[in-house]
Amino acid sequence: MKEYRVFLYTEGMFSSIFLNGGKVNPIRLSSALNNFAKEGWQVKAMERENRRTLLFFSREAFIFVLEREIKQ
Fold this sequence. Notes:
The protein is 28% helix and 47% strand. The chain has 2 helices and 3 strands; from the N terminus they run βααββ. It starts with a strand and ends with a strand.
């Protein structure tokens, strides 16, 4: 039997607006995914989107569907 988890990854609003223009930091994203992998999660699906922040700014976001076997 399997279980699923939805994981939304975005950078913080301050860093998105002032530091890197709303782009996701690949090192932080890799670290987050590696932490899930240590718990047995595997990425089954991923979607990229731009999310509006404060009226004029947007930031990149990733939605992941994770899957793992249920431990019995």
